[in-house]
Known about the structure:
Helix 2 packs antiparallel against helix 13. This protein has helices at 27-32, 35-48, 94-106, 138-142, 152-156, 163-172, 188-202, 206-215, 258-261, 267-278, 294-300, 310-315, 389-401, 414-428, 432-438, 443-446, 449-463, and strands at 53-60, 63-74, 79-80, 86-88, 239-242, 245-248, 264-266, 305-306, 333-338, 343-347, 351-360, 363-370, 375-381, 466-474, 479-486, 489-497, 505-512. The protein has a domain at 414-512: Nuclear Transport Factor 2, Chain: A (Roll), CATH 3.10.450. It is built from 17 helices and 17 strands. Strand 12 and strand 13 form a beta hairpin.
Amino acid sequence: MGDRTEIAGTMDASLIAPPPSFADPARREKLASAFGDVDGIFAAFRERHRIPGVAYGVVVDGELAHAGGVGMRDVAVGAPVDADSVFRIASVTKSLTAACVLLLRDEGRLCLDDPVAAHVPELAELRYPTLDAAPMTLRQLLSMSAGLVTDDAWADRHLDASHDEFGAWLRAGVVFTHVPGIAFEYSNVGYGVLGRVVANVSGRPARAFAEERVLAPLGMSSTTWDAEAIPEDRIARGYRREDDAWVTEAPLADGALGSMGGLATSVRDYAQYVGLHLSAWPPRDAPDEGPLRRSSLREMQQLWRIGPTFMADGDADEDEEGSDAEPPRAGRWRADGYGYGLTSGLHEAFGRVVAHSGGLPGFGTHVRWLPDHGVAVIGFANLTYARASVPVARGLDALARAGGLAPRIPNPSPALAAARDAAVALYRAWDDEAAATLAADNLFLDLSLGRRRRAWEELRERAGACIEVGGERLAGSLRGTWRLRCERGAVDLTVALSPVIPPRVQTLLFERVQGDGEGAGA
């Protein structure tokens, strides 16, 4: 019943590239040099927005490398915030619920394309907005594409709804703004339904399943859904601001909607969960220690449904734009949307970015990590809907300014490296027989051997002999471009291997770099 099939056999070793790795030996030191700036960013955020307390942390390579707190976790007693203060994290909870669904999927106990009603009987008679609508699936709930109407304001005040009450709502029907599967629409009720799926399929309350299968293996002993269980000397109390004063928000009890936003945790504890997600990168042959498969963690972090610019909206603080005290941001967003319990996007400076915000009466939270950089920033605040995404984003910008956010460098497969070397040898001394041995069956149909030889002769005459090879730019382990430094300029060499075994060269391009200067140093 699961989505996965185990594949027997092994891949040709020549096609397997070593995992990407960090090239800068001073990377950790450069990141650490920015921690003082991160402290200042969160302190300024807390002061500017008059927040009782803010806790934050920087995770590097799965470890909490730096953490701090400013302000008070409890105003009445003046108790300070630190990395062990326990905050409600609101919708940042959602990825844990998604992880539980994928755990059950990986065990073959459900399929992500199952109709939701197969696991939640209360929805068996659900009416859809049109007669041609297909039943909503678990995958659609996970990716916020089931069409259920956005419900933030309503859901935040119903976190403590009983399971019987929630069941009655589901039997009465839920409200759609789209038919399932055609558009993004953020739904807390949808994640409440997923919590019910976890409970019904596992035979245990969703929170108990999550505690046993995820939290306990990660050692997250300070993480709970029960606000009353948080120790008095560690609880971060939630506040709203009224008439220039902080007013305590009474915490809502855990209930049927706890799976959408009821979790409470500390920066130190939550760093373990963030570290789990970072550990999924890069894909590799090392033992998969869990508690969730690395492949499933990567699946959660993919962009499955294009949505509004979640992360871009959170980065800008209109009151602070243009301030001389605030350095410019490192880059802008290309696209983002929703994965499984996580937002996911592409950033022009950072590449892949994964994140989520949370907001409840009394709290505002945000976490953001860079899978290819092994770095995350966490921010928790105890003020209603505090925009913790702002200092988190600026914290990453500070790390980038320190020079520590260089991504892992990919490696070519042995087969591609061998093809590159053979192509460089062809540039240095063309040989028809060597070219034919290298070529896939399409290569000389696309451009004949004779024409390729003549094009090489013209290029070789203009650029001269190759002095050295560098400037590697890989588009995967089987395709890449290299810069050849030649006597009278530079030449870009592009090689791509064919999709069948044994792989041969399907693309071979020598292109003189336009505008490149003359001479050996060009």
